[in-house]
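in:
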């Protein structure tokens, strides 16, 4: 058990284990977005930093088929930030929240040596999509294309530049596809730690393994911060889901099926080194 999983295991209860905590139809989710861990200010504008911080948090709500309603911000800022940069941050938070109908209702600010952000999202759902629900024989799939985020991160680490529409800075969530198809899905989560790592979470939650239809390269399986959807479904709903995916312009990739076997994640942890 890695350090992250060990630490989380100290707080185990019925609300922990999904992208957010579901309590009486309300989903509470929170993620951190810290300078020199998730981003560097030389890579992104302050507007892009705020936009991504908000969007990756909203992703947790979308992953649970919840409608994000409210956000609480915690922003630790260095004294070197100018008023112009602070306004950029605020505009980024407001614009990304507005895109998904979220109202920013409060939070906290504090001085710090670098820019660290945490966001809490409060969402509502009548048909929650959870990680548990997979059964043997169910198909497993993900949306969109994987691998670009890791490639673009590598470019940035090597002092290169990436396109302003790169997924690393410009995330598009699959909210319409998930809301329309949730009734056909047996489980779901967003791909934040990488396909192989997040398959490990589904494997653990459902006590299943996976038989892949073809080999998935590590460049795809280990690419984190993709924020595409990973989901499972009964094969009876394949035709309906493919139709919904086409209607909502969401490419989906059916990569295998659930079987009775052990699963081993082939990627190193992103959070702890």
């Amino acid at each position: 058990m890695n350090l992250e999983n060990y630490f989380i295991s100290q707080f185990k209860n019925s609300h922990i284990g999904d992208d957010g905590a579901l309590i009486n139809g309300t989903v509470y989710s929170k993620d951190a977005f810290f300078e020199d861990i998730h981003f560097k200010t030389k890579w992104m504008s302050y507007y892009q930093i705020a936009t991504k911080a908000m969007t990756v948090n909203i992703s947790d709500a979308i992953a649970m088929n919840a409608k994000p309603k409210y956000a609480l911000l915690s922003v630790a800022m260095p004294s070197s930030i100018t008023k112009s940069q602070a306004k950029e941050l605020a505009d980024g938070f407001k614009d990304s929240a507005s895109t998904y109908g979220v109202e920013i209702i409060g939070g906290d600010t504090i001085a710090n040596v670098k820019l660290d952000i945490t966001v809490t999202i409060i969402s509502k759902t009548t048909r929650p999509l959870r990680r548990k629900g997979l059964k043997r024989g169910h198909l497993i799939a993900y949306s969109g294309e994987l691998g670009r985020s890791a490639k673009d991160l590598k470019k940035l680490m090597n002092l290169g530049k990436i396109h302003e529409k790169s997924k690393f800075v410009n995330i598009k969530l699959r909210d319409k596809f998930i809301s329309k198809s949730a009734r056909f899905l047996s489980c779901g989560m967003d791909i934040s730690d990488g396909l192989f790592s997040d398959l490990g979470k589904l494997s653990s939650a459902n006590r299943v393994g996976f038989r892949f239809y073809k080999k998935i390269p590590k460049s795809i399986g280990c690419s984190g911060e993709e924020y595409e959807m990973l989901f499972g479904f009964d094969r009876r709903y394949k035709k309906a889901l493919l139709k919904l995916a086409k209607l909502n312009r969401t490419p989906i990739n059916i990569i295998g099926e659930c079987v009775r076997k052990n699963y081993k994640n082939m990627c190193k942890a992103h959070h702890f080194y």
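note: Residues 46-63 form the longest helix (18 residues).
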